[in-house]
Amino acid sequence: MSNSNYSDVLTATLESRSRTLRDSVSKNNALLSRLKEKGNQRPISGGSKILEELEYGEGDMVWYSGYDTISYTPKQLFTAAEYALKLCAVPVAISGEEMLKNSGDEQMMDLLEKRVSNAEKTLCNKISQAIYSDGTGSSGKEIGGLALLVADDPTSGTVGNINRATTGNEFWRNQSSTKNLTKANITQEMSALYNKCTRGSDKPDLIVCDDALYGIYDSTLMDMQRFSDPKLADAGFVSLKFKGADVIYDGGQGGYCPANHMYFLNTNYIYLRTHKDRDMKVIGGERMAINQDAFYKIIGWAGNMTMSNAALQGVLIHSTAA
Questions:
Q1: CB-based contacts of 279-283 (< 8 A; 24+ apart in sequence)
Q2: Could you read off the pLDDT of 204-261 as tens digits, one per residue?
Q3: What are phi and psi of 285, to 5 degrees?
């Protein structure tokens, strides 16, 4: 009877907190918070691949007069990037001994709260870390984050099943610049990369950097120049401004932005695609250990980070050897 009661409480608690957990993951990372704000945390309903359609070609246009011939030659204007579905999970386990020792209602809930809270923090931190990954972690089972989508070397590697090294795929390469960055030149180098990532009114809206580069840029500003986005501030993120883009640092304790990196992101073209049936939800029913006096529940997530335009993304890298 105690096992059954404990299982019911655990299940109800995890199910009711799944939405809170989804919100917490977004609030734990400024990039995810921006994607959520823009509606770019788009769900998927099935399939073995996540597809992002890409418009990379241009049709024919001719200047003409009178009865000039207006010819049309069919061209391939669209393609698609394919991203694999990645999965992760955190178990919440309870042993029979713990059930017996915490059989009172208050004791049971106190222990349960701590276990669920730990699972939530674990998922938030691990996904926030994976946002910067190159997709090779855990033997290739980790999501492909900024190190893959906005690569240090955009002329090599495969992203979305499109080989960036292949002639003709130049449209699928992000901008990249490596410089010895100092207080004297950082704004100049930021401007140069910002301009490369701009296409008319399409321009970076979020610049994410590590502690060092954030500190260098911050040191160039006068107090009256330190404008910040109230939405980011309300969410707990420290930010500055550069040409209208929010400049944030993912540093301090638990920050995951790679050292000496500053990402220039146009978040109109970056997405977090999550499977609708595995968005921080409890997987399956009660799971009893076959050779242990214990049972557990699993909180699971499935999806990937995707991108539909690489040329409007950039990374500025600090190197003393540059």
A1: 279/18, 279/22, 279/43, 279/303, 280/18, 280/19, 280/21, 280/22, 280/25, 280/123, 281/15, 281/18, 282/11, 282/14, 282/15, 282/18, 283/89
A2: 999 999 999 999 999 998 754 666 666 665 556 768 899 999 999 887 776 799 999 9
A3: -100, -150
